[in-house]
Amino acid sequence: MTMRVYRFLSALTLGAAIAGAVVGEGVALANDDGAIAVVVNANVPIDEISVSQLRRVFLSEPTETGGGNRFMPLNQKPGTNVREAFDRKVLKLDADEVAKFWVDQRIRGKGKPPRAIPNAKLLLRLLPRLDGAIAYVRASEVGAGVKVLKIDGKKPGDPGYPL
Amino acid sequence: MTKPNSMAALSLCLLAGCLYDANDLCGPGEMISEATSTCVCADNHVPVVRDISILVPTNPTAEPPRAGCEACGTNEEAVGNECKCVAGFVRGANGCVESNLGASCASDADCAVGDNTYCRLPDGYCTSTGCASSDECNVDADYACDASEATAFCRRPPVGEGAVCSGQGPDPACSAEAPICASGTCHVAACVTDDDCSPSRDCCDLSAFTGQSGFTLCMAGGCP
Amino acid sequence: MNPSKYLTILFGVAVFATPDLSLAQDDAGAAMNDEASVEAEAMSADEEAALSAEEEAMLASLSSEADVSADQGPSLRFYGFSDFSAQKYVLGNDAQEFALNGNTAFYIGNLNLYMDADLTNNFTSLIEVRFLFTPTGNDDPTTPGLLDPTVNPRQAPAMDYADANRPIDFGGIELERVYIQYTAHSLLRARVGRFLTPWGIWNVDHGSPVIISASRPYVIGEGFFPEAQTGLEVFGNFGAGDATFGYHLTLSNGRGPIEQYGDFDSNKAVGGRVWMEGRWVGAVKAGFSGYYGKATDRRNQFDPTSGSVYPTAFVYEQYDEVAYAADVQYTYGRFHVQGEAAMHDRAWNDDARPNGQADNRRFGTYGLVAYELPWFNLRPYAVVQYYNTGHNDGIGGARDILVSELGLNVRVTPNVVLKGSVAQAKFFNAIPGTVAADDLIVASSQLSWAF
């Protein structure tokens, strides 16, 4: 009897695992959709940033802008293509890993993730009004009032542009 | 050559810490017990009890806190947690000094520098007075308290008692104080009670062995 | 039930509990909502008004995080973690039977609540509180124990005055972290209060969901460094290419019977840590930590012969200590390896040395290898740890212990982790008849979650 229960539970476990895998696959359907531009408040005195600096900024490590302020990173909404592409290219983490990372950081007492802004329009309107603000949008979405940073010396659209 | 060694030692010290010295793990006068990894008093050392005022000890049997151990002095030996004078020595003002018990004298002045200031005459030996029982005398030296006089004193054992002899009965090899030879040693005769003998001996009635009524000897190790 | 069946069932339950991973994002309420492009056409007045309102609200929210106005006050965030475990010791001798409970036990190991707030753009505060079920069930030191087993040795429950004085179990609270932090620069951050000692990996990363194995390696909890200190911590870091370098410096009361709020000596403890992190072929992080302190226990005595009616204080016990530790972790894809090694020296003040206590040097180390399988966040792992207590009766009657552990870590969701492990402890140089005279096996499973 005990063995029968054990086999039944094992079968259930396997079934649930397969179902979980299918659900999990569904999350990883996002794909890239054009270059990502890193944009900052126009008062930020730098014109260029490296991927590793960008990574530190978006991992909420205090990082100076060079103008007496610290960067205030603003994220795109989780689940959007641009957010997932940014996380993958800059943080080297997929969506699930990002979620785990911030849970772990919270328990370590090492800070919280950058605020996520509901949409790019709002993000681009907020950026000029927040000192040190830094964010990312599709290159095609960049409007006036913000500055696009070069990444490792390359502008969006340049060959070898990392984002 | 010295300088590089010093630098190496300093580097090692910084790296591994200078607090720990494998050759000095315990307090003064202590040594490490390999079996228990605890500090115990070194040989011939006794604990130095810390100067802590414990008015009502919670655990009276617990060993009081100690501040290391100290070596016993010259002519001392550690017995339990105390230093005691070795045989033949007594505690004086400056540690253990050789006892003058039994030393020859002609007057009290000859005994004044030692621990026994009374010169017993006419026998001529240094001893002490004022005992109430033999326990107050040097039992190791077999002195007995003699209260037969107005001032009680510690009486030395009879001269020649225990000396080797070969005959049976009165023997010229024995002294006047212990004239009888029996079982190869000289004995005091004609005792009445144990008090007539040295503390280490008992008064034994040997009439049954000798056929002489009232024949007694002071004998060590119990009567036959 | 044998441990393997037990673990399998737990894993089964965990997989059932696997929710849609899209719900487990760091920001709540996320859903697939791709903003593909900004609409070029002009917005209606209503849309513009709505967007402006949203902008102002968001701006206020972001500004309040950055600089809290006096009347509004900072917003307090609550979060934490907890874990539920089942543990079974496989006992091998009478001493183990006496010292350990051989029955499978369920328990809540940790319930830690965090409260943090951004006070201004530069000031933040963090409080971490652990709730415990003890002292209920702990042995009461005033009972005679073995001398009279008929007397209940455990703490008596309290009476519930609001419920007809019925017995009520009471728990405890441990303040793990309480500090305020100021960020002057990435190179200079300072926190004052009570903080976890920055050494190694798993002293600060002490939350059960973060720890890969079912419990921290034994040596990490052995207090080579104080687990937490009260005082000042200064730290910072800087990036150089793909590498980041950081430091921590600490100044605290050090260890002592009232270290949380007092110091019985004027000698403050100092410590530090340097670390680097690099991302080249995989990610590597390494650090070196050190600590020096003086621990003092002061007592009072009353001497009626002194003429004073006041007791006088004196140093009852005192030692100096120094500790060093090195740690390294390396992650390459799904492969993770980490290790820590620590050494601790303690030298007693000869005038305040407890009877029999020898100066001591102890050291310990562990290595962990884990690999995350491509399915279901399954991460099998192996840990080997060694601890030399420097004392012949240091651990259960042995000087050295070697523990080998095999386990499985399943990150069911980012917030929920299930672990199962079997560990075997081998003792060396054991005193016959003690716990350490035979190997000890422990099977553990744990469900931990962050909330």
Describe the structure.
The complex is a heterotrimer of chains A (163), B (224) and C (451). Chain A is α/β, with parallel strands linked by helices and 163 residues long. Chain A is built from five helices and six strands. Chain A folds into two domains: 1-30; 36-151, Periplasmic binding protein-like II (D-Maltodextrin-Binding Protein, domain 2), CATH 3.40.190. Chain A has a six-stranded mixed β-sheet. Chain A is globular, with a radius of gyration of 20 Å. Chain A starts with a helix and ends in a 12-residue tail after the last strand. Residues 1-32 of chain A have low confidence and may be disordered. Chain B is mostly beta strands and 224 residues long. The model of chain B has no long low-confidence stretch (mean pLDDT 86). Chain C has one domain (3-10, 77-133, 171-450): Beta Barrel (Porin). Chain C has 451 residues and is mostly beta strands. In chain C, the strands form two sheets. Chain C has a 16-stranded antiparallel beta barrel. Chain C has a two-stranded antiparallel ribbon with strand order 4-5. The longest helix of chain C is centred in the first third of the chain and has 22 residues, at 45-66.
How would you briefly describe this protein structure?
The complex is a heterotrimer of chains A (163), B (224) and C (451). Chain A is α/β, with parallel strands linked by helices and 163 residues long.
Average pLDDT for all residues of chain C: 86
Task: Choose one word for the global shape of chain A.
Answer: globular
Please give the most extensive interface between any two protein chains, plus how many residues each contributes: A-C, 67 and 68 residues
Q: How big is the Rg of chain A?
A: 20 Å
Descriptive key words:
heterotrimer; B: 224 residues; mainly beta; 3 domains; 3-stranded antiparallel beta sheet; two-stranded antiparallel ribbon; 2 helices; 17 strands; elongated; C: 451 residues; Porin; 16-stranded antiparallel β-barrel; two-stranded antiparallel sheet; 3 helices; disordered N terminus
